[in-house]
Amino acid sequence: MGSSNxxxxxxxxxAGFIGTHTVVQLLNDGYNVSIIDNFDNSVMEAVIRIxxxxxxxxxxxxxxxxxxxxxxxxxxxxxxxTKFDAVIHFAGLKAVGESVANPRRYxxxxxxxxxxxxxxxxxxxxxxxxxxxxxxxYGQPETIPCxxxxxxxxxxxYGRTKLFLxxxxxxxxxxxxEWKIILLRYFNPVGAHESGKLGEDPRGIPxxxxxxxxxxxxxxxxxxxxxxxxxxxxxxxxxRDYIHVMDLADxxxxxxxxxxxxxxLGCTAYNLGTGHGTSVFExxxxxxxxxGKKIPIKLCPRRPGDATEVYASTEKAEKExxxxxxxxxxxxxxxxWNWAKNNxxxxxxxxxx
Length: 353
Ligand code: UD1
Known about the structure:
Strand 1, helix 1 and strand 2 (32-37) form a beta-alpha-beta unit. Strands 3-2-1-4-5-6-11 form a seven-stranded parallel sheet, with helices on both faces. Strands 7-10 form a two-stranded parallel ribbon. The chain has a two-stranded parallel sheet with strand order 8-13. The chain has helices at residues 17-28, 44-59, 72-81, 96-101, 103-123, 157-175, 209-217, 245-261, 280-291, 315-321, 329-342, and strands spanning 8-12, 32-37, 62-66, 86-89, 128-134, 180-186, 188-190, 224-227, 239-240, 242-244, 267-272, 278-279, 297-300. The chain contains eleven helices and 13 strands. It has a domain at 8-194 and 242-275 and 311-326: 3-Layer(aba) Sandwich (Rossmann fold), CATH 3.40.50. It is of the alpha/beta class and 353 residues long. Helix content is 41%, strand content 16%. Bound molecules: uridine-diphosphate-N-acetylglucosamine (UD1). Uridine-diphosphate-N-acetylglucosamine is lined by residues 94, 96, 134, 136, 159, 188, 207-209, 212, 224-228, 238, 240, 280, 303, 305-306. It catalyses: UDP-alpha-D-glucose = UDP-alpha-D-galactose. Its cofactor is NAD(+).
């Protein structure tokens, strides 16, 4: 448990996967937290679980508002009532396929929502921001590991919203130097809270590897489609940098601390990854070991737009944030399985959707 401090942090999208885990760590660290979430891809039960995990005492430091960043009044209502010291901005859509089919929805939620947020923050003189970016801004990196000053490139409308929002952050900070903005580029967040009470609960059929594997393990899906087994890698499957969501949560605390302690920070990006690559087949094997379940697989063609191998350079975050991932693939699978077996249907209390 950290020391108590009186800072109040607004967390947008705080009921989502990364949001819930970060809110728990903020509360444990003594921050007051206010969540705004529209429940587009999250549920109230997640907020109830945050309270269960931190206990009644720290729950007193948590407020929740159901609201939508696209509706400026929702933000005005919040900022006119409470003085926020900083904002951690998770709220946004992240399904690549959906963004290709419906780009306007992505521009609306991700761009308009964030622009509104900056405007209301400026009006109320709250100019410290931690923004959820993504390794997707590296596109198909020419070399690995990905270093923060690589040239950036988007591969789809979702990725474009992250890239645009990074550019918007840089422009705002350049024009108004009193802003301090940290862009956190997440690699592949997986795992769950060790209590087994919080985890990822995507709506519909999961797009991402680990939620898919998890649903095969609990019998919701029959088999895993492995997209690509002819990549030029050690076992033919694609390689990613999976990072435990609790490490990611702690990365946000480190970023906040940096915002509060650094003069002339500007707008700067950090990778949040482990620096280690793991293949799809290795991930399947690790999950089978952790769960004792067989994960049947079907070999499928490559998924369009997928990179062969992506992992982070962790040097900048280690040096400047004093943050480093603690957990390996074994712990990621252990905690994800613990969440899955206790909540086979996610936050829904009963079976079947
Ligand atoms: C994906 C997005 C990325 C986004 C991130 C959010 C794409 C192209 N990229 O990253 O923009 O920021 O999610 O979390 O969608 N795999 C399978 N079977 C599956 C699912 C995935 O074999 O059912 C493979 C993929 O081909 C990939 C690896 O598993 O090699 C990881 O996939 P995924 O979890 O979707 O993450 P990314 O593609 O890295």
